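Re: folding output
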Amino acid sequence: MSSPAPAGTTHVGLAPHVAGTFCYAPCGIGLVFSLLALRVEKQNRFLRLHAFQSLSLHALLLGLWVVLRTVGYGLKAARLGFLIGPLQVLLAAAAVAVTVILMLKAYRHEEFALPVLRRRLRRWASPETETERAALPEPPETPAS
């Protein structure tokens, strides 16, 4: 799962591990950077993987927030709103912990994918078209024994 990222810079002008780390930046910066990276970067699989994973994580957290808010309003109407507060705090702490871990993995040049997203991210991070795949350098051939 952890393989070294290609050396050099990406089309966004940063080293791959720095650009991958920026994908997880807080306060919406990571969301915007991930969208920009996917738009600009077509060949660096490492950056594309982290950009897609960041977008997936943002979507998951947004969905959980909407569900918790909806359930919270229902519980408040039933005078049980105090039950949702601790759950929201736990979700926020888990989200911060996962984000920090992913930032560290990206900065250490690791192609780490969350287990629930692993198969989908591998497919999404690959070049998009046959033309783009053909433009990538061929891996070295191993001699047949």
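--- second protein (sequence, then structure) ---
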Amino acid sequence: MESTIRTTGQDCYNNVSKGFADLKVASLSDTGRAQLTKLFRLVPALGPVPDDLTSFYLYVFAAFQGIIQYTYDGRRQANFQGLDIGTACGMMTNTSLGSELERLAAVFFLDAKWDYGMGDSDTLDVTYVNNMQPFLNTSIDSGQCGGDV
């Protein structure tokens, strides 16, 4: 990922790096977590629970990973409509979108629109326990399989 971002633009790379560094620092304090909760529209609010923090990091990291992974394969409709590393880097270098952390959130929401169907007012639950619930049901006849079993 780093190589692709750096190849796309050193300023982009620097801003992505700073955005993730700022995200990590913010996650270490109550005030910072409150900022992240608001910025990323998290419900419930992000707390100091290590598994929840890891889950949150995963969501943000996965947005960049997915954008980079699928930028050059040309198979997703989203790529033809601007979900690619060029657009992400354009956002990360656009100071009118706010701080590097705010730009990180903007790229996250660009990806979340496609990957999760998130709208402009939708919220995100990053709690580990809630995200693991679907995997705890091991019954094949539960109706959770997506088909008639």
